[in-house]
Amino acid sequence: MNLILLGPPGAGKGTQAKFIAKKFNLYQLSTGDLLREEIKNKTEIGKKIELIIDQGDFVKDNIVNELLKKVITNSLYRNRIIFDGYPRNITQAENLELMLNSNNQSINFIFSLKVNRETIEKRILGRITCEKCNKTFNKYLNKEEIEKHECGVTYLKKRKDDNQESIITRYEEYIKKTKPVLDFYSSRTYFHEIDGSQKIPVITNKIEDILKV
Known about the structure:
By secondary structure, the protein is an alpha/beta fold. The protein has a single domain (3-115, 175-212), classed as P-loop containing nucleotide triphosphate hydrolases (Rossmann fold). The chain is 51% helix and 15% strand. It has 9 helices and 8 strands. The protein has helices spanning 13-24, 31-40, 44-54, 61-72, 90-102, 117-125, 143-148, 164-185, 200-212, and strands at 3-6, 27-29, 81-84, 109-114, 127-130, 136-138, 156-157, 191-195. The protein has a 5-stranded parallel β-sheet with strand order 2-3-1-4-8, with helices on both faces. It is globular. The two termini are 13 Å apart. The model has no long low-confidence stretch (mean pLDDT 89).
């Protein structure tokens, strides 16, 4: 099965995607991770991406589509992809359908995590990520887990863009561009809206129950 996981920044998409991927043996596809991987590997496309980001511009859809196509057409990932936070706009949603259809695949489930801005702010302002294992914590909500973290607290860092101004910008950008995507998908029988302000295990259980049907 292929599924899409949508939600504003800080909604917990990445956390849920990791749980679902492990439980159902799926491949978690994050466009941000794809871009970073190309830069890290110093590929030709990675050099282009790095230059674009360094100039403060957004990576164009045609480059993202090229990377997505590699994954979608890879037999290892066929019909077992979680699109984590993608598509972000109507053009991307339409392109994704075309790419999947041309490879005789489709989307089976769409989950939208609904979280208000106040909750998002609390989550993001307290978010710290382990540079070693990539696990994410909240310094306000996960104090005990942070103390016991096996990699040690020295690896726990705050993202540069996790600040008040950036949160407001990213949230408003999401509402403006991704709201039409939700409207695009919402009438489909496999679209499910979930209260993303609940505790992580509660959200995970709800998603798992729907996937098991």
